[in-house]
Amino acid sequence: MIYRTRRTRINENIRSIVRETVLNIEDLIYPIFVVEGEGIKEEIPSLEGNFRYSVDKLDEIIKEIEELGIRGVLIFGVPKYKDEFGTSAYVEDGIVQKAVRRIKEISNLFVITDVCMCQYTSHGHCGIIKNEYVDNDSTLEYIAKIALSHAKAGADMVAPSDMMDGRVKAIRSLLDENGFKNVGIMSYSAKYASSFYGPFREAADSKPQFGDRRSYQMDYGNIREAMREIEYDIEEGADIVMVKPALSYLDVIRWTRDRFNHPIAAYNVSGEYAMVKAAAKMGYIDEEKIVFEILTSIKRAGADIIITYHALDVARRLKSR
């Protein structure tokens, strides 16, 4: 007997009918970089097709995002000044705070804000430095203050990306104490010390001025440790957990899906994006086809949400079908 599985692959109609994993616009979150100043819309050289916007230039991109049917954005701020304690990250008139208020004035998008210190500190690390070491417990107060300032500006959800132990609990406690019980937390729970972040560090001007981040971001050889990180974040109050990066960590996404019932986000990061763009420019790949294959693989692995710089292009294509 021959098992004729090809019968369900014989043409596009039947392939579509039996397709197990389908990419939807609603799966996508688009990252936006916001900078101080006026009249600024500048392309990020290492993230072709993505831009830094001043707050007064956000209206156009926000309108396009809404028209495409994308439901949410992730906001990153690039501040005007930096200091040892990243104070510009939590001031009322900070760049993220101003961007959130503007977006909320003009749209119904779900606004998520990145909560970290690396863009705002003079040393480029994600916390308070003591003896050239990022001090975990001293950092928690600052991370929570940043999250609270974003909530006060109108953020729907905050996304701590610092990888400090206990930061989800610290954020949840401070938000609740100040009446923001409905502001959610999407935690970068399994964030690896990856070489795929290079273009982002240019976009956000967040490169460490000394050392690296391996003492707080995860070792890329570990997966059981990631499960512990995710479990702790859920216990502390995370509403959504994230795996970052995505493409080289599909197994981590799968393990997470098999072990937890929480919504899972996966960040298709800057280096993954830039490699696709570079290969497409050389004519080595079909960009559209490979982007859909990559994002579908991330969803197939178990991600409910995909944060990606490809979001606009993918949404345009899906909308035109």
TrEMBL record:
Reaction equations catalysed: 2 5-aminolevulinate = porphobilinogen + 2 H2O + H(+)
Binding of Zn(2+), residues: 116, 118, 126
GO cellular component: cytosol
Entry-linked InterPro entries: ALAD, ALAD_AS, Aldolase_TIM
GO MF annotation list: porphobilinogen synthase activity; zinc ion binding
UniProt: 5-aminolevulinate 2 binding residues: 270, 309
Catalytic residues identified in the record: 191 (schiff-base intermediate with substrate), 244 (schiff-base intermediate with substrate)
Pathway in which the depicted protein is active: Porphyrin-containing compound metabolism; protoporphyrin-IX biosynthesis; coproporphyrinogen-III from 5-aminolevulinate: step 1/4
Residues involved in 5-aminolevulinate 1 binding: 201, 213
Lineage: superkingdom: Bacteria
Gene3D superfamilies from the UniProt entry: Aldolase class I
UniProt EC number: 4.2.1.24
PROSITE patterns listed in its UniProt record: D_ALA_DEHYDRATASE (PS00169)
Pfam hit, one: ALAD
GO BP terms: protoporphyrinogen IX biosynthetic process
Keywords assigned by UniProt, alphabetized: Heme biosynthesis, Lyase, Magnesium, Metal-binding, Porphyrin biosynthesis, Zinc
NCBIfam families: PRK09283.1
PANTHER family xrefs: DELTA-AMINOLEVULINIC ACID DEHYDRATASE
Family that this chain belongs to: Belongs to the ALAD family.
Self-association and partners: Homooctamer.
General function of this protein: Catalyzes an early step in the biosynthesis of tetrapyrroles. Binds two molecules of 5-aminolevulinate per subunit, each at a distinct site, and catalyzes their condensation to form porphobilinogen.
Name by which UniProt lists this protein: Delta-aminolevulinic acid dehydratase
Organism in which the protein naturally occurs: Thermobrachium celere DSM 8682
Source species taxonomy: Bacteria, Bacillati, Bacillota, Clostridia, Eubacteriales
